[in-house]
Structure formats: structure tokens, C-alpha cells
Write a structure and sequence with these properties.
Shape: flat
Number of strands: 24
Low-confidence stretches: 1-21, 110-114, 415-419, 648-652
Number of helices: 20
Distance between the termini: 58 Å
Mean pLDDT: 85
Strand content: 15-25%
Length: about 650
Amino acid sequence: MAAPKKKPTSEYDASHITVLEGLDPVRKRPGMYIGSTGSQGLHHLIWEVVDNSIDEAMAGHCDRIDVTLLDGGGCRVTDNGRGIPVGPFPGDKKKSAAEVVLTTLHAGGKFGDGGYKVSGGLHGVGISVVNALSSRLDLHIERDGGAYEMSFAPVTTGNKIASGVAQGKLKKVASIPKTRSGTTITFWPDERVFDDVNFKSQTICERLQIMAFLNKGLAIGFHDERKDHKREETFSYDGGLVDFVAHLNASKTPLFNTIGSFSTSTEDGEIDVAWQWNSGYHEGLHTFANGISTTEGGMHAEGFKRALTTAANKYARQSGLMKEKDSNFFGEDVREGMCAVVSVRLSEPQFEGQTKTKLGNATMRSAVEKATSDYFLAWLEHNPADAKLFINKALGASKARKAAKQARELTRRKSSLDSGGLPGKLADCSSRKPDECELFIVEGNSAGGSAKDARNPKTQAILPLRGKILNVERATLDKILKNLEIQALVTSIGAGIGSEFEVEKLRYKKIIILADADVDGGHIRTLLITFFFRQMFPLVEAGCLYVAQPPLYSTEIKGEKVYVADEAQRQNLIQQNPRTQLRFVRFKGLGEMDAKELAETAVSPATRRLIQINIDQAAICDDVLSRLMGDDAEARRDFIQANAKEVENIDI
């Protein structure tokens, strides 16, 4: 006889309903507002503050922004814009408008008329979120002949923490010339919120440089005052997007020296575009709306692509460069080797959520398409030598596309001969639910054997790869598809490759790269990341790509085995245990680990360390991959030297 069910001991009534007030929701669920509490979320605080200053620049009221990393761990952002309003807030005369902006979600000057015609921060949560997640925030405003200051900090009462509480009213601290204006915000990220509060100067500089490219003539200064991190940079580009394209193509071989561009205004908004082709095989289209990187593209990207293909086919026919028997170019033919930036500004942008990664304004598609059709076709006609190089490259891409199609069909026919159409060396999992399935791409057969024994066969599949895969940065798709290791990857993942990739067909929602912790392993990780970024970008975009972090050493402390991630952690353990003679065993490779060790350090979800590969700034990622994996050895050396002090995983 079954035992009677026990009644729940806890009650649920009206007293259990909690309303998070003020900035408390941010403190309670920071990931909803900044993405994560890791490095990405930490740097997002700076972006939120800088974006407000950029909005001032786009409105024509600011031509200088300075970002300073302070020695005490804080960050100061200064602009010479109009300054946050200091007068009484109409809805609450006891508070200044500045205090409301800093302490209230969805409060700002970007909702009604007159404050900002164009802006990136539309939701009014930016600066208040920074305040909520800081251990202290100082505000300095200059406007209307006065300098004003106030501070904010969390206040703890019992077990409750009230976020970003004003430490007094806004005060006028000095009289200044009426010609001076601007805002300075200094904040210190709260160590109780973030996993790590150390800012990375290279990450910041890359983002600031893009902002400078997008805002012609705006000067953005970066200053790192931290000990052992001293750095001074100023980013300012009179050429705007033309300089941006030149920068992105610097590590590649341009097909021609000319960089085409146009800027125009329509009733739907402002459109800025620049383009140049290189001798490579990959499309580099980078789109922005109101200064926000739209990594998923959107209507402006669609309009540009359609116009480009139409204009290329029209010019190729009219000029006689395309024969009558030749079929029209596909869009991917025209965009092979393309490096282009499309930036639009509009008053009422429709983004998908707070992340703003895709533009949804249908009118902008037709506006960009019409403008690009007119200007790009005119550029082709006025630059016949460059146009001929471009059309010939598209013709070559068209032939390669047809060859790649044949290679795909051959790969499919070969796969159908295998059991279940899957590679023989794949140790598949028994589950057929992609959401719970993981595929480990493992370096070497010996490591693959240990991984098979370490895995959970229900949800974890193992695909061992032999050696280093092809560097896809330097290969056409038909050549890529002939590579046996890549064939095994494509077949195992099951969602296609290149323009035919369909993320909905993924057999595993986690693809995990598992390679040795040494230099060779790092190279293999970089090759694989390059492959996924170039040939399965939607997979990376969907957050399905991960890198396992196996340890480099093991040791024993007080009779317990301790795994050590890297040399830095080894040195920390030595310092933390000065009276103990620690003996470290270095793992030469994954193949040296037994199944238990591999399970504990890299395979078991309970104890492993994974890094998710995120695409926050596609232009930055594209540039980094080109520098690391392209033919320009000097650009690769310069990049490594610039990042040497801060890097933890240069392949990531």
C-alpha cells in the first residue's frame, strides 16, 4: 500500500508576494540587465556609461569623451556634452532630475521629444544599472554656469541591501564659465556582484575604437592609470567608415586600393556605408544602428545585400564581363572577400530586446536598398578597373560555389554509406533531445578513448580529431569540404555548413572543444573556433560553442588532489602555502589523464570549467581572427604583443 502523500508544510499567500523597488531588481537579477556577472557583464557597465556620452555626440553636443581606469579599481567616464539636467524633477520636486536618472529604471531623456532625436540607449536603464551594481558611484555635472556633485552607494539594513542610494542631495560645488558643460561618472564595480572586477584595457580600447570610427570627428581618449598597466590612447577618425574599412582590411590583402563609400539622409534616417574587397574568401559585413552593433543584422543588412547583388549582376551584364550563358550571381558570390560597414541612424529604431542585436524597421530596408543601388552602381561605373577585379572575383566565387555544391553532395553520398549516416569514429550519445546533448571535439585518439570512458553516454558524444584541422581562413569552401576531419565535424553536427547551415537542425546544443592545455592545444582550439566562426556562425551566435578548460598541473594539499588550471594559479598556490613544499605534476596532454581525472576536470558538468564563446562585437572578432589566422605575420605578431600582458587564453 502506497504511503499517503504529506501535505506541504509551507504556506503560500499574499504575504509571500515580493515587490522589488527602486534598483533592487538589478541587484537581484543582474544577468537580465548586463548579460552576466563575468567579464562580459563587468565591461558592459562601461559601455552603458559611454553609450550615453555617444548619444550626446550623435546629437551634436559632444566632441570629446575620456575613459580612465583608476588605480583603485574604478572607472571614470567624462564627456563635454550638455550635462545631465540638474533642475527639480517635475514628478518629484524633492529630487533633482540627475538623481532620478541615476536611481530609477526607465528614466532618461530618450523617450519623449526634444531630448535626443537619435540614441542607442532607448530603455533608460543604462546608468541606473551601473549605479545599482557599483559599490560607489560619484557624479559630477557641469552646466548652466555651475559644477554639481553627488554620490551613491549601497546601504545595508539587516540582511537587505538597497542599491545605489543617494548619499545626500545634488550640490553646487563651484561656479564655472557658462561655456563649460559635460558629465563625469566615476564608479567602482561591486565585488559582491561580479566574479572579477579587473577591467581589461584591450577589450575597452577595441570597443572605443569602433565608436570613434562610427562617429566621424569624435575624439575618444583612453587612460589606464593602474600600476603595471599604464596606457594612453586617443581614437579619432576624420574618415569615419572609410577608415574603419581600411582598419578591418589592414591584415588582409585588398583586391584594389579604392574604398567606396556614401553618406545620405532620407526621411527614414541617415545612412553611412563603406566597402572594399580583399583576396580572401569570407564575407565581412558589419552593421550598426544608432551606434549599436547589430550582430544579427536586420533590415538594413538585408537592404544592402539585395542592392549589392542586383547592382553587380546589372553591371556585369552591361559591361560584358559576364557571358550570356553565365547564370546570375548569388549573393554569396558577390560578398566573397567583401569588407563592408553599414551604419544607420533613425529616430524610432525597433530592436529585438535590450540586447539590440537585430534591427526590425522595414522602412530602413527599402531606404538602404535604394541608396546602395544608386551609389554602388555609380561607383562601379566610375571605377572600371576596380569593378573588373570585383566582378572577376565574383565569377571565381560562383565557380567555387558550384564545386562546393558537388563536394557537399559527394560528402552526403559517402555519409549515407556509413551506419546511420554518421562518422565511424563518433561515439554518439543515446539521447535524441538536442537540448540535453553535448558533443566533445577531442584532440587525438588516445584522449578520445579516455573521454569516452569519462562521459555520460546518455547525453555526451565524443568525436576525436586527428591532428590540426585545415585553417579555413585561407581556403575556399570546396577545399574545406574535401578535408576528412571537417567532413566528420559537419556530418556529426548535422546542421550543414556555410550559407546552408541551419541552427535548428543541430544534433547537440553544446559543442565543446576539448584540447590540451599547452601551446599546441591552443592552436587547435584557435583553428576550430575559426572554423565555427567562418562556416557555422549561427551556431556561435546562438551560444552553442564552448571551450573546456582542462588543468595544466595537479598537486596534493593536505592529502587532497588539487587541479591547477595554469601557471598563474600554480604561483598563487605556492604563495598561499609558504610552509608546504608542493609537488606539481604537469599534464603533457589529455591522453595522459585517466577517465576519472578527465571526468573531474573537463567532462562532468558538476566539476568542469567551460568558457562560452560569445559574439558581442562581430567586427572585433572578425579582425582578431584575420590577424591571428591570416597571411600577415607582422599583424599577428603585433596583436600578440599588444595583448601579452592581459591574455588568459589567446585563442579565446
